[in-house]
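Input record, target 12 of the design panel.
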């Protein structure tokens, strides 16, 4: 990989402890760079939509504006709103907004849920958030709505698994729902101030094709994410993942950051991470 541009900043490859450290590093670097680059000149690229959740929450927490390109904010995604509606109805059966949403999934599903919600509510104080979520999945057969062989629907299943990561961090259902309500209120506050329009750009590597930014952060460049775990044993899919890596690296005009973690809480479970094979390959060319 070569460029006609002479000089420039070295590529920064950074290993972090976990996804939270990664997101905080991202925030601190963006704040530091803001004196030289407008927010809209900075992009954060990731392989899968579910990765946006931790990044969005860190940016919201520190008041940094952002805009999702070609995507929807994590807690506004259909599958996430559906599951949250089920969970809110477990706590408050009279929640009319949640009732209306679940009814739109079908009258039969609504009737089945009303019947099965009674045993789910039993001894609710003894159940953690993730267990309640699993009971809802079992009672409603909600996950069967999505075909994992379809890329778009598989992405929705990945988002649902990422919601389980949040559930694991907030084992009490009320704390879980309060945390999400807080994030949702920050969404609304950002919309009122129209902060996103000039904000940092967040997008998947697929959505970054054809775009360029002064500063690019590629996050989660790890085995199982980039390349995606579904591509590891398929030569042609692996080559497509390698092209995505190339797309990400070549989006940066001035500065490029590549981050990976030692361990990551992803899809509802803690995993030990290893740097993507593509980092070593690209290093040979750099």
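The sequence produced for target 12 reads:
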């Amino acid at each position: 990989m070569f460029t006609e541009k002479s000089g420039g900043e070295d590529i920064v490859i950074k290993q972090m402890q976990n996804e939270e450290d990664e997101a905080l590093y991202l925030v601190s670097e963006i704040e530091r760079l803001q004196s030289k680059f407008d927010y809209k000149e900075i992009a954060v690229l990731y392989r899968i939509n579910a990765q946006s959740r931790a990044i969005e929450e860190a940016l919201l927490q520190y008041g940094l504006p952002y805009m999702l390109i070609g995507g929807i904010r994590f807690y506004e995604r259909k599958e996430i709103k559906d599951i949250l509606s089920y969970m809110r109805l477990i706590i408050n059966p009279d929640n009319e907004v949640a009732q209306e949403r679940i009814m739109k999934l079908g009258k039969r599903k609504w009737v089945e849920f009303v019947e099965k919600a009674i045993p789910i509510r039993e001894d609710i104080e003894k159940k953690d958030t993730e267990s309640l979520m699993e009971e809802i999945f079992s009672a409603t057969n909600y996950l069967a709505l999505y075909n994992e062989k379809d890329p778009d629907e598989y992405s929705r299943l990945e988002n649902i698994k990422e919601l389980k990561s949040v559930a694991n961090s907030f084992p009490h259902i009320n704390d879980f729902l309060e945390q999400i309500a807080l994030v949702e209120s920050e969404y609304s506050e950002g919309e009122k101030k129209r902060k996103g329009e000039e904000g940092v750009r967040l997008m998947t590597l697929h959505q970054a094709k054809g775009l360029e930014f002064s500063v690019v952060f590629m996050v989660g460049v790890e085995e199982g994410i980039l390349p995606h775990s579904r591509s590891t044993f398929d030569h042609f899919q692996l080559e497509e993942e390698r092209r995505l890596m190339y797309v990400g690296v070549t989006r940066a005009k001035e500065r490029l950051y590549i981050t990976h973690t030692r361990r990551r809480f992803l899809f509802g479970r803690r995993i030990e991470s290893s740097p993507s094979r593509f980092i070593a390959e690209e290093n040979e060319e750099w």
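The longest strand covers residues 252-261.
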